Amino acid sequence: MPDAFKYSRILLKLSGEALLGAADYGIDPIVLQRVAGEIAEAHSAGVQIGVVIGGGNIFRGAGLAAAGMDRVTGDHMGMLATVMNALALQDALEKLSAKVRVMSAIRINDVCEDFIRRRAIRHIEKGRIAIFAAGLGNPFFTTDSAAALRAVEIGAQLLLKATKVDGVYSADPAHHAGATRFDILSYDEVIERKLAVMDTAAFALCRDHDLPIRIYDMGRPGNLMRIVRGEPIGTLVQA
Ligand code: UDP
């Protein structure tokens, strides 16, 4: 592990929206390549990386339920959407010569491995990027919760939440001109100020296990490398 890096093992949470680009559905191949390039760069520099990917660019259970579908069925579709995104990211990373394994929380063995914690850690230790698909495998959860759980399970030193904004603000910067960005927040401050960092279950898991969360803008090239080098990009939430 080169001295220049602050973190040797990270868990990166990518929302499905991260793959949308300008479209409102599906995967933009140019955006996918760029995201894969950022991950591959940090990985080839020696950082061990697990990725949890969402599915919101394809299906979300809550949205399908609002349109009249059974919620559990909708959540199953949402989880399958995350598997599709994971396969797309695997493909893009492999085109950059990275070694990758997709591991799913629901059994779908013909296309990827099952999530088995010890095997996931082994993959990461052997220099493979592990992409964790299908969230927690249960309905009524989100991939934020999966990101928190997998981060704790693999012993990540940092949970990185990649978003379209450059951190956590005191109010929505799109609607409040005076909104200010926090550089650093404690878990308690996030709760007291009712800041939407992650969903409550995910956040509670991070807090209980003292896992720092960094929320950052993934649209700015080079941010992932800056963060693993220890630069204070975005907002850090910690004890
Ligand atoms: N999902 C689920 N259980 C999980 C993770 C995800 O049922 O453990 C479903 C849920 O319907 C969710 C969808 O998969 O809306 C896609 O995940 P998410 O909304 O977290 O994706 P993101 O917003 O990160 O793109």
From TrEMBL:
CDD domains to which the protein is assigned, alphabetical: AAK_UMPK-PyrH-Ec
GO MF terms, alphabetically ordered: ATP binding; UMP kinase activity
Short name of any one Pfam family annotated for the protein: AA_kinase
Principal subcellular localization: cytoplasm
Subcellular locations according to the entry: Cytoplasm
Class in the EC hierarchy, top level: transferase
NCBIfam families reported in the protein's UniProt record: pyrH_bact (TIGR02075)
Record-given protein name: Uridylate kinase
Gene source species: Metallibacterium scheffleri
Gene expressing this chain: pyrH
